[in-house]
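seq as requested:
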Amino acid sequence: MRIATFNIRHGQPCGESATDNEQMARTIAALGADVVALQEVDARLERSGGVEQTVVAAQASGLSSYFGPVIGAPDGGEYGNALLFAGELLDVENLMLPSEGAEQRGAIVARVRIDDRDLTVVGTHLAHKRPDRPHNAAAQLDFLLAHVDDRSGPCVVMGDLNLEGEVVIPRLHDAGYTVVSTGPTFPAHSPRRRIDWVGHRDLTLVAAVVPDIRSSDHRPIVAEFTDAGFTEAEPTEAEFTDPEA
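struct tokens:
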């Protein structure tokens, strides 16, 4: 079972000023994942051509989808997180995180059934550190982990956490998760910081890669997992391309 997390920056490629929805969709499809958590996803916003980016990405990937709006725009558009998935969506919650004094943040908490196996998937985008706003990301991560603490069975928590390892790793470990080890994910053109994360419970990691993809300012994380019911196929860097527009 292949899982990916990707902050798509509303489809704006690294170093570009305009959105490219087709490149965004092709890039996500090329990840070949069974479950993809997306952050910074637009719905009906002018800057991204007024499209439902979740739908565009899902159609290109051949996956089902769920969009979790977090912020509404005056023109009726929305911005938030999305989940793409193979199989069946058993339940889902669009959870608002404590965001006092800063931009509202949220998380999608879902249970999906893939190959007759149930998996809890948590995809989130936590607060960005800015001098004019509180940095609530650590508190948001604590809140989210406590919220899903009673979930049984395999679980994956992932997303753009806007936090470094010294904050993320002990929190995930204390909550019973194993952290997927990767290189830096940001900025995409020359990654220096690891702020995108995947933590897993009751699954075995086969391999993980951070492909050299620049259709956003972040690079995705792609991880392959197995247990008694999931197949395994190790991802390699050579699989992934950054499709041209």
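The radius of gyration is 16 Å.
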